[in-house]
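Example 3.2
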Amino acid sequence: MARARRRGAAAAWAAGFDGFVCFCPPSPAQEFGLPLLPPSNAKNASFAQGANFAITGATALDTKFFEKRGLGKTVWNSGSLFTQIQWLRDMKPSFCSSAQDCKDFFAKSLFVVGEFGGNDYNAPLFAGKDLREAYNLMPHVVQGISDGIEQLIAEGAKDLIVPGVMPSGCFPVYLAMYKEPKEGYGSGSGCLKRFNTFSWVHNSMLKLALEKLRAKHPGVRIIYGDYFTPVIQFLLQPQKFGFYKQLPRACCGAPGTGPYNFNLTAKCGEPGAIACTDPKTHWSWDGIHLTEAAYGHIARGWLHGAFADQPIVQSS
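Structure, written as tokens:
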């Protein structure tokens, strides 16, 4: 995922995916002819073209934040955004010999910071808390993302793409957990309206935070990566993307447990769950994550601007 507007740039860094969002074929890295980035803790791997610092279930906020609020049991990751940034700092001696070398290296790289927020909000929601509890976290989450961006810029990052959250009300996990009256669902999408409103508010707050960062760091390109719009389009215009026209439904799940093919006691990979025959025809993989096909459409939209507030790829 080299910085496209600088010819010959070779480095690419992912400081943030929580373990599933990016580098699913076809990813931006592949679009540039680069290999999928190795995990940062991989042994005997080459990091000349970048690294993936993903942590499954990663949050914007540290675990102690949730523990203080009695939510520690529903945060099941091994680190946050700031854990990943520290891993990046720990790796620096392996690819640059001085502070200036590192800044020069990072200045030619694309940093993909997120998606963060979804797992932070899952902490209260999966604990059965009201949506208001998640709203209370929102300023802290957005500030955490903003602080992480500041730290990466201080390390020398010049090009960053910062994704918003997906429309949570469209995902089978939430649709299976929360039952609403008929008017609580989108007539065309079948999504939970109040959860999608929540996601939209987060994204609006994040965009405002990014505007402040752009004003503070005029020499840095900070791109907003949109997940919300493409997922809505997958549901409203599925044929455009090669998906089946249907209510939100997981490709991999437990059949016979409702319209969403999602069951908390038989999730994808667990006994009783099976995968659909052709995942390319679905946008939801397991009711929580997207399919590779869906990520591919989004990656191309980020690269060329359909799903970003400016395209990653810019002419010289």
